[in-house]
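Notes from the 1:1 (GR / supervisor)

We went over the backlog. Supervisor wanted to see one worked example end to end before approving the batch request, so GR pasted a single chain during the call. The sequence is below; no edits were made to it. Supervisor asked that the structure be written out right there so they could see what the output format looks like.
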Amino acid sequence: MDLGSPEVWRFIWLTAAVGFALGELALAGSFFLAPFAVGAAAAAGSAFVGLPVGVSWAVFLAVSFVAFAGFRPLARRLDLRSPQSAVGAGRWVNREALVVRDIDARSDTKGAVRLDREEWTAESLTGDRIPVGSRVLVCRVEGTRLVVMPLEYPELDVSSVDEPKRDGGGA
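Structure output shown during the call:
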């Protein structure tokens, strides 16, 4: 096998192009291997035309660089639009939870929230006290603790508040 022959490199480049394309399919959405697949396909084309191996390498590098520069903005845009991960701790971010134990930075007791059917220790993003019954938004996950901010506080039950006594005497 003569590695200096464009005939041999035709199939090396084709194999590389297919390999990079399959790798890109396995890593869907990253657009990391796609530019190399395009570059390898262009290099295969230059080898089929009969250009020297060095020129094929130059074509591979140049086309891969241009394709990489072209795919990056698309990959970033698609990444910004993609929803939050549905696995791992990131799945709790931007979800609503209910406070089941007061969250207060000045207290020794830990606050807690219920998220779906799970109870999590929680702390306030702002450091403010958040009473039981409040709806909160999970801002981030730090280890086994959720950092939350209040969305709404529970309704006050006015029937339990004593009415002020009025003097019956007037002028």
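Supervisor's comment: The first strand starts at residue 96 and ends at 101.
Batch request approved.
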